[in-house]
Each structure stands twice: as structure tokens, then as C-alpha cells.
Amino acid sequence: MIAKSNLDQNPLTKNEALIAWVDEMAKLCKPDRVVWCDGSEQEKRSLTEEAVAKGILTPLNQQKLPGCYLHRSNPNDVARVEHLTFICTKTREAAGPTNHWMEPQEAYQKLGKLYDGSMKGRTMYVVPYLMGPVGSPYSKVGIELTDSVYVALNMRIMTRMGRVALEQLGGRGDFNRGLHAMLDCNPDRRFICHFPEDNTIWSVGSGYGGNVLLGKKCLALRIGSYLGKTEGWLAEHMLILGVESPEGQMSYVAAAFPSACGKTNFAMMIPPKRFDGWKIWTVGDDIAWMRVGPDGRLWAVNPEAGYFGVAPGTNEKSNPNAMRTISRDTIYTNVAVTPDGDVWWEGKSKEPPDGLTDWQGRPWKKGSAEKAAHPNSRFTSPMTNNPVLSKQADDPQGVPISAIIFGGRRSSTVPLVLQSFNWTHGVFLGATLGSETTAAATGKVGVVRRDPMAMLPFCGYDMGEYLGHWLGMQSKIPYPPKIFQVNWFRQGKDGKFLWPGYGENMRVLKWIIDRAHGRVGGQETLLGWVPKAGDLDLSGLSIPAEAVDEATSIDVAAWKAEFESQQEFFDQLGRTLPRPLALQRELLMSRLG
Ligand code: OXD
Ligand code: MN
Fold this sequence. Notes:
Elements: H1 16-29, E1 33-36, H2 41-53, E2 58-59, E3 69-71, E4 85-87, H3 92-95, E5 100-101, H4 104-115, E6 123-131, E7 140-146, H5 149-158, E8 160-161, H6 163-169, E9 176-181, E10 191-195, E11 200-204, H7 209-212, H8 215-231, E12 234-236, E13 238-244, E14 250-256, H9 263-267, E15 279-284, E16 288-292, E17 298-301, E18 306-310, H10 320-325, E19 331-333, E20 336-337, E21 343-344, E22 378-382, E23 399-407, E24 417-419, H11 423-431, E25 434-436, E26 448-450, H12 463-473, E27 482-486, H13 505-516, E28 523-524, E29 529-530, H14 545-552, H15 556-573, H16 579-592
Parallel strand pairs: 1-6, 3-19, 4-5, 4-10, 7-9, 9-11, 14-23, 23-27
Antiparallel strand pairs: 2-3, 6-7, 6-8, 10-11, 12-16, 13-14, 13-15, 16-17, 17-23, 18-22, 19-22, 20-21, 24-27, 25-26, 28-29
Helix pairs in contact: 2-5, 11-16, 15-16
């Protein structure tokens, strides 16, 4: 940790552009101290001590949860704020109809006033971070200036932070410029502004992960998608996992799911008994950066180094590997705690333990109508804790992707699995991805929200152009991955899920991998390829064959309604919706007759 930003005295970097920018921002925010983070263990200890002394972190039971701490956020600051998230491009059109837009000069002025003197009496931490593996041509450097020690400690888990990032940057000036100030955490003075044309992010008035851990949604997705478009690659809201066969053959898939669809669980899945000898390896649980490799295949890296996962619902059944991962060196935010300093959340165990303290620090009684843990309570854990972390997670070249999967939460219509006819149809499946709202969120339950490629809140430019970029990638990838759609959430007439999900999803994944390698049959339907009877390995599965038939069936009437509803969304995208996608919809619809 270095407490000077002076060029001559800064042993961490000689990068003049960086030092000049840090000085300029420090002049604006006027902190008492500027501390450059080097990413060392010693620094982690002292930042943690400081956070504990200030009451920002509370140590948990160090016998049960070594190296774990609890953070309670301001109760008004518990989630991403899409309505306060802006894309600040020169023209409104560049941000497109699905983003909130602010004119860049207006945004700089408005937020500049809020930053002015905001760090008086406080410390500005200079957090250099690397998104992507060390030495990878795919990786990008960001610098986050923040007055939150919680942010600095979380960034240390979520990214490759400190010296390593400055070394990768060298003397170049092309780093992402991120500035974050807590202010008084007032939603009226909360803005998350992205300036893709300046590679800059300004965030004020929040301490919540998605708004302030600037490497994640802000850089890796919003700015990343813009860089991907201009530089010819893809920044996607996708997990990356490796499937290893008993013979040791590895295949990798990337999969996009909107929130509340079990993405982290899928990324760390344990195959069922029937698949003894098969292994799933996690490369990433949230974000994929994908480029065409020299061999003509699509290669992916996970730009992150940790998991910022939703705690509620995580348990020994839904995700045993996550339970191991979060058992040490983890920062918990807004979970409940037991009298002996253990953590708890809804769904961790059937019965809540006695004597809980809720996420706001209040005593919590069993049977209370209020949740003990906030529904969006989180864990931040290093990926190196994951027992099934892929050996390739640090590979500068990334991993070759054989299949891309789009999945949503749909109680009807969308079958368990479907393979696209071709790239355009695959992009169409991604573009029309929808997911039903759940009881966990406010608003009406069961309404389909369209979320193209699960990127609606994260695309840093016009959505129609983004879809056009996806279509255009076809001619750049000589050996493209095959594209699939999945739905683990279809329900029978009795409202019960037809498919057991969790580890059993391995059966579907196996068909996907086999299809991607041209090793298994399929049946062509009007809407895409599906497994023929007998293609899906169902042995040892304790659900009736009829349920599987129903989960995989195609209901023509429901699909007609689906195509109508897709049109409503396409209308919202406006004139930049690529024509091939509009025609694809018409083709599928007219096939149905
Ligand atoms: C996340 C999200 O936190 O998608 O990953 O909201
Ligand atoms: Mn996400």
C-alpha cells in the first residue's frame, strides 16, 4: 500500500497518464489520503483490520468460517439500480431504446458536482485491476478509484488486483477510468454512468456490488460489449464450463441465463450417479469474453477471478461446490447470522436456526413474515476456493467453445432443449430469450420479460446493433459453436416442475455436447432439432417418462402466442433490429401455418 501518488515517489508505476489522471480525480474529490493498492497479503490484512475497526466488516466465527466477514449495507442500497444506470454516448441513438441515456457533458457536470470534495476526511483507494488471465491478449486493465474499503476488498477477490494489473498495463494509457464515491448513499444522488466512447465509468451514491465493483457489470459487460463491437469480439453475460468425459475428453460450453435461473449452480454442477466418471469444471459463473482463435474456433476467457453469488437458495443440494467455496475467505453481504457467528439465509437449511440476527442487525423470530437474509444477499469468494475450478481458468488463451446455450425460466412453451438450425436461428433464440418474473422480485409473478442474450441490463450500446454484431460474427468464425436453447423450468398442468434440474441437467448437457461433436441423433421439428426418443440418457432418473415427453413437447398454439409476443419486443427495438431476425421470426411462424 503506497500513500503517495507522486510520480517520483510511486514505486508501483511510472505510468504518467495514470498518475496524472489519479491526481486530477484526487483534486476533484479531495480525499485526505490517496492509497495505491498493490494486491499483497499484507495489504489485505491491513485493509481488513481497517474495515473491522470502522464497523464496515464484522468477523464471523473464525473456526467455522476462517477468513470470513459480514457486511451490512445501507438498507436502501441492496441491488443494481437499472433506472439510475446510464449509457452516456454522444447520441441517444448510440445507447439505443433499451438503455437510459444521458448526454456525456451533462453527466460529467452533474456527477462532477457530486464528486467535488466528496472524499474530504476520507481515503481514496487506487485499485488497479486486470479483467482476464495474466498475460492474455484478451485481458483489459481498469483502475477504480473508490472511497470504500469494502469495494477495495471485494475488488481484490473479484479481479486480479494490484501490481499484476499495473505490470500488464505498463506505460499504456488505454486503461478503463473508474471513479466511485459513496457520498451519503442517498438514492436521490445515486448514478451509475458509463462513457463507452471514453472508456470511463463514474458511479456515485451506492455501495452495492453490481453498481460499484466496476470490473463486473460496468466494465466486463457494458463497456466490454462496446469494446467487443468495435474490436470484433463478444463480451457476454455467460458462464463457461468444461465437461470431461470418463475418457478424459474435454468440451467447453458458454451459457447465458437471466437472473434467478440457477446460473452459478449450473456452472458448478455435480453430475448424477448415472454419470459416474463425468466431471464438470467451472471456468466462470457469470461473464465470458470470446474471440476467434488462430484455429478458427471461438475461444473464451472468464474476465473475473471470483464469484459474487446470490446466497438464498444455495445449499448442500442445490450447489455443494458453492458451499465449499464460500466456507473461507468470503465476504458476506446482508445475510443473517446465528448466535455463534455462522451465516444463514432462506433455503440454506429447511429450518432456520434459533436466535438469528437478520440482515439489518435486528433479532429475527421464526415464522416472521420478513426474510432473515435479504433476498439479494451475496457472497464474494475467490474462484480458487472452488473445488471444481477448471485448470484452464488462468489460461491466457482461454478455452474453445463447442456450444452456446441460452436458457430462461419458462413455465410453458419452451421445450427442455432445442438445437438451432443454423447461426442466424441460434442468434434469434438468444435475441428472443425470455424469463418469467419470480416471487423474489417485486411486480407481477409469471410475466415473461424479454432479455436478449440475458444482456438487457448490460448491453452498453444499441440492442439492435448488438444483435447485428452477433449475426456478423458468423463470417468471422470459421468453426462456430452450435447454439442451443434450454428450459429447466417447464411445469405440468399440476404446476409441478416436469424436469428435476440441478445435477440431472447433465443429461441434457451430454446431448448438447454430443450434438456439438456430431455424435448423436436428433429429430428435426418445425422449431429446431430436439433429441429423438432414446437420445437423452434417462436411466436411473426417478421421474415418469411422460413428464420428460411433456417437458420436451412442442405446443403449436402456445408457440403462435410466443411469436406474437416476440414481435412486441422486436417492435420496441425499432429500426436497428437486424432484418434477418425479423425474417427468421416470420419464417418460423409461417412454418407453423
Ligand atoms: C449478477 C446479476 O449479479 O446478473 O450477476 O445481477
Ligand atoms: Mn450476472
